[in-house]
Write a structure and sequence with these properties.
Serine/threonine-protein kinase N2-like, HR1_rpt_sf, mainly alpha, 117 residues, rod-shaped, HR1_rho-bd
Length: 117
């Protein structure tokens, strides 16, 4: 069982936060901004669920593990996974702000401001 735990704790999981405006520039005119934002949100939600399952599994494994070295590795995995969940929630919050801003721009296109004399 110790080898499996080591394999889990040493496995590399890649999550990244992406600046929406920078990544959208590379997509070109064929992809709508709304679809891109909503697809990105779905990916973030999937990643959050995955990391939450990993954290829950690491917590359960931590409580049943008796070996001190294995327990330390599992605790490291657990802490790492919880940090990733927090980072993903932060990214989701920023993305939700982008979606709100995009929807406001879509609802009020070409609004003209007049100067008062």
């Amino acid at each position: 069982m110790g080898a499996k735990v080591c394999g889990i704790s040493c496995r590399h999981r890649h999550t990244e936060t992406v600046d929406i405006s920078q990544s959208f520039e590379f997509l070109g005119p064929s992809v709508s901004m709304g679809k891109y934002l909503l697809d990105t949100k779905q990916e973030l939600l999937i990643n959050i669920k995955k990391e939450m399952r990993i954290a829950a599994g690491a917590e359960k494994l931590f409580h049943v593990t008796k070996d001190r070295k294995t327990r330390a590795r599992v605790k490291e995995l657990w802490n790492s996974s919880e940090k990733k969940v927090k980072d993903l929630y932060t990214s989701l919050h920023k993305l939700n702000e982008e979606i709100v801003q995009w929807r406001e721009e879509e609802n009020a296109p070409g609004e003209i401001q007049y100067n008062s004399l």
